[in-house]
Amino acid sequence: MAAVRIDQVRIVLGEILQWKFPADAVLSRWLRANPKLGARDRGEVAEAVFDVLRHLRRYRQFAESGSGPAARRLAILGLASVFDRSVLDTGLSEAEQHWLEHVLRIDVKSLSRAVRDSLPDWLDERLSTLHDADALIQALNAPAPLDVRVNPLKADRAEMLELLRNGAAARYSPEATPYSPWGIRMQGRPPINRWPMFEKGEIEVQDEGSQILAALVAPKRGEMIIDYCAGAGGKTLLLGALMRSTGRLYAFDVSAARLARAKPRFARSGLSNIVPVVINPDNDQRVKRLRGKAHRVLVDAPCSGLGTLRRNPDLKWRQHPDSLVELREMQASILRQASRCVAPGGRLVYATCSVLPEENEEQIEAFLADNPEFSLLDASTIVVDRCKNLTLQGPYLSMRPDVHNTDGFFAAVMERNKTSSVESTIPQGKDKLVDQPAPAKEAATDEPGALPQAGLAEDSASLDD
After folding, report:
1. Distance from the CA of 55 to the CA of which of 154, 167, 335, 438 falls in 20 to 30 A?
2. pLDDT for the residue 454
3. Cα(5)–Cα(88) distance, integer angstroms
């Protein structure tokens, strides 16, 4: 068994490490091509693969010693976190057993942080500037639990928790999330997509940090609201339910494929107020017709997804400083475009699943400097209305895995002055939405229960989006 599993993990890693596609997409494709594998087999392959991706730099340094293909030694190191040593040894040669014993005795504290915690140098440098960087990095390197939420239109959290605890789901230790009033957290790899409550639209996969964004938007019945980068529709669904399926909720995205993936979820939810719209990247006429009309606009901007490394560890290696520059330009452009849809006195919420200031606070500071008709609101006073236990420091929402046990999330809440004009002062052609591949945060949960990363593996397409 161990010998076969080593070869399977080696093959999957060989495809992933070409960095052509997100790791979860490659793994899902490989699993579909091997349908005879049982649930335990699939789980063991997935856990080993993601363990290697979390610790890739350190494992590669370890793999420089020994003999034979380095890819095989990476697979062995990944499976060392899955199998008992006595089981793994049955698939190893005597030389490999000695090599593994040697590298596992290495004191990781003797390694530099970038190697120990497997970060590219540029990312280690950026994260080192953040408060309590070591704790944050270690938390980002740990596997994430699976967060789901109830559909407030169809289910009550307390009743759903009782149902889960008294059924087959009890083995996954379901418990209420500490901050979101809609969330339920589970451990392990529950096959959510095969549960009747999922099929009936009573629960959805969504990280707790993402759920809290809905509390900042604070939708009301009968309003016009725009989810400007709707993706696979996770946040749209919660907003629509909180509106009690009244008013009009536009789900905008430049990708028809992402919105197509959202439509079955919209149908399951029982909502009738969602209007999915594929918008053009540049000067979309439907967006222009909504200028100054929306009560609330959510911009969950395409981002590096570095706050989701617990679920998408390959992003450490797929992102680079140049891509961040492009993302920052795109984020600023999208935020400007979306802001024009906000009515006087309306609310604009900007959010990312990144922990980097250049995608977060710095974007807001630049936007407010260029758009004095908007003012920053205190997120802490808004979020407490729904999330009683969440205490924030400062005007922003900043969620961290080491502090809140959520993915890394950022959000800022702004309001357009009640007397301001909604006419654009931006030169025509300056803003252009690039039709990008699915952002990093959408690669995580397209198939809940399929992989060990949040029960599925952001941004990617993600049910968490």
Report:
1. 438
2. 31
3. 9
Q: Do 214 and 279 fall into the same domain? A: yes
Domain that holds residue 45: 1-116
Per the rule left: phi > 0, alpha: psi between -120 and 50, beta: everything else, 454 is: left
pLDDT of 439 reads 45
Give the pLDDT of residue 294: 98
pLDDT the model gives residue 26: 97
What are the two backbone dihedrals, phi and then psi, of residue 24, each rounded to the nearest 5 degrees? -65, -35
pLDDT at 445: 40
List pLDDT tens digits, range 151-167.
Answer: 999 999 999 999 999 99
The residue type of 332 is A
411 pairs with which residues across the strands? 351, 397
Note whether 226 and 303 are same-domain residues: yes
Per DSSP (E only), the strands in 131-272 are: 146-150, 175-176, 183-186, 203-205, 224-227, 248-253
Q: Which of 229, 303, 353, 387 is catalytic?
A: 353
pTM for this model (two decimals): 0.90
Q: Within this chain, do residues 107 and 175 fall inside the same structural domain, yes or no?
A: no
| CB of 312 closer than 8 Å to CB of 458 | yes
Number of domains in the chain: 3
Residues 6+ apart with CB under 8 A from 218: 296, 347, 382, 385, 386
What is the domain-level CATH number for residue 328?
A: 3.40.50.150
| CB atoms inside a 10 Å sphere around CB 425 | 9
- The arithmetic mean of pLDDT across residues 94-115, rounded, is 95
Question: In 97-190, which ranges are E strands?
Answer: 146-150, 175-176, 183-186
Show the tokens assigned to 224.
Answer: 């016009």
Q: Binding site for S-adenosyl-L-methionine: residue ranges?
A: 253, 282, 300
Return d(Cα 81, Cα 241) in angstroms, integer.
Answer: 41
Q: Cα separation of 127 and 113, whole Å?
A: 11
DSSP assignments along 444-464, one per residue: S-SSTTSSTGGG-------TT
Please state, in angstroms and rounded to a whole number, the distance separating the CA atoms of residues 431 and 338: 11
Judge whether 226 and 250 are in contact, CB under 8 Å: yes
**Least confident among 63-77, 87-101, 416-430, 441-455:** 441-455
Annotated active-site residue 353? The verdict is: yes
CA 159 to each of CA 76, 77, 154, 191: distance values in angstroms, whole numbers, following the listed order: 44, 43, 11, 20
Binding-site sequence positions:
253, 282, 300
